[in-house]
């Protein structure tokens, strides 16, 4: 077993040998990409802190400075999960929308490259729509 660590980004040619003999399919090309920097992910928007039953809540996730990785978002209300699919609206900038169906504490987990981003899990408070009657 041999480990080789390369920190320079790009394509690299590696010759593989065993007992000084080339291994079939050698040399091989290996692409080096930077490791994801989950601390560089920026999440913001009112949908992270508050919401209203029946009204769409929105927040953004900016992964543009974080390197390669998958974005995973889960939103859960007091009794069930909600649909929240990120839509890329720019280079690494994603908009996330969800519509609460019940009042109470919700949890939003935002992961990038299988790690929670700074501030995750978020806990927006969702309230019923205010209804006012005017008599006069």
User: Percent range for helical residues?
Assistant: under 10%
**Count of DSSP helices?**
0
Shape: rod-shaped
Mean pLDDT: 89
Largest sheet: 4 strands, antiparallel
Distance between the termini: 84 Å
| Class computed from helices, strands and strand pairing | mainly beta
- Relative strand content: 35-45%
- Per DSSP E runs of 2 or more residues, the count of β-strands stands at 15
The strands making up the biggest β-sheet line up spatially as 5-7-11-10
Q: Helix-strand pattern, N to C?
A: EEEEEEEEEEEEEEE
**Low-confidence blocks of residues:** none
Using the CA coordinates, give the radius of gyration: 23 Å
Helix-strand blueprint:
Elements: E1 10-14, E2 17-18, E3 21-22, E4 28-32, E5 42-44, E6 50-52, E7 57-62, E8 71-76, E9 81-82, E10 87-90, E11 93-98, E12 104-105, E13 107-112, E14 115-116, E15 125-127
Structure description:
The protein has 136 residues and is an all-beta fold. It has a four-stranded antiparallel β-sheet with strand order 5-7-11-10, with no helix packed on it. It has a four-stranded antiparallel β-sheet with strand order 9-8-13-14, with no helix packed on it. It has strands at residues 10-14, 17-18, 21-22, 28-32, 42-44, 50-52, 57-62, 71-76, 81-82, 87-90, 93-98, 104-105, 107-112, 115-116, 125-127. The N and C termini lie far apart (84 Å).
Short description:
This protein is mainly β.
List keywords for this structure.
single chain, 136 residues, mainly beta, four-stranded antiparallel beta sheet, 15 strands, 42% strand
């Amino acid at each position: 077993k041999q480990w080789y660590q390369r920190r320079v980004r790009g394509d690299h040619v590696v010759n593989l040998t065993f007992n000084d003999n080339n291994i079939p399919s050698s040399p091989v090309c290996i692409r080096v990409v930077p490791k994801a920097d989950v601390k560089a992910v920026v999440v913001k928007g009112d949908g992270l802190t508050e919401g209203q039953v029946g009204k769409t809540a929105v927040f953004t996730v900016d992964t543009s400075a974080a390197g390669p990785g998958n974005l995973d978002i889960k939103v859960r209300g007091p009794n069930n999960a909600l649909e929240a699919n990120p839509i890329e609206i720019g280079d690494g900038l994603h908009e996330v929308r969800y519509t609460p169906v019940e009042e109470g504490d919700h949890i939003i987990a935002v992961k990038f490259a299988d790690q929670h981003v700074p501030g995750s899990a978020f806990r927006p408070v969702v309230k019923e729509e205010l209804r006012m009657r005017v008599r006069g």
